[in-house]
Amino acid sequence: MDKTIVDPEDLRVLILAPTGEDAPLIQRVLTEAGIWSLMCRSLPQVTDTLTTGAGAVLLAQEALQSNELQAFVAALEAQPPWSDLPITVLTRCGSTQWALQKVSEQFQKIGNLTLLERPLHALALTSVLRVALRSRARQYHVRDLVERLTASQIALHEKISDLEQFQDVVVGRELKMMELEKQLEELKDRQTAHKEGSPDLHR
């Protein structure tokens, strides 16, 4: 089985936690756990960065109040069939059921959503993100399988087309040979008939 080679940027965690020192603290925790991350300043930056590669997205609940959320969700909905980018939302401490339900509704068309209530232990955060990144790595494996399958199908269609063209040439040549043979037979028949119908001048 071919091993999937993933670009490091494709497995980085995009962090958007605009309140206080949350983002630097989260990044420090992830770095110590061996997880590469990138701090983003705004939701539009997160959306734009998706095009250059991401393994997971970590958002603070307060970042979801932005007017740019619709564009972010639209980018997630436009993912190719193999892709289901993991999204983790850090909810506020003591968030009501209504508030949590609202967060879920904002991502109702996105299946890969995890809610984590703050405050949370560093181990809980890294554990959730490791699972998310393993899931993302499997998605890249599926992507590569689909690409290889597509390439194989294209190559197969090209070979079939070449064989069909070759068959057309061979069949066409055979038909021409048969036509030539038929014409030769007709010519021989005419020559034979001509000889048989000619008077014998030596009698």
What is the gist of this entry?
The protein is of the alpha/beta class and about 200 residues long. It contains 5 helices and 5 strands; from the N terminus they run E-H-E-H-E-H-E-H-E-H.
Describe the protein's architecture and organization:
Helices cover 56% and strands 11% of the residues. The protein has a single domain, classed as Response regulator (Rossmann fold). Helix 2 packs parallel to helix 3 (69-77). The mean pLDDT is 85. The protein has helices at 22-32, 43-49, 69-77, 97-106, 122-197; strands at residues 13-16, 37-39, 56-60, 87-91, 113-117. It is rod-shaped, with a radius of gyration of 35 Å. With 203 residues, the protein is of the alpha/beta class. A five-stranded parallel beta sheet has the order 2-1-3-4-5, with helices on both faces.
Q: What is the CATH top level name?
A: Alpha Beta
Nearest-angstrom radius of gyration?
35 Å
What is the structural class?
alpha/beta
CATH level-two architecture? 3-Layer(aba) Sandwich
Along the chain, the helix and strand elements come as: EHEHEHEHEH
The CATH homologous superfamily is named Response regulator
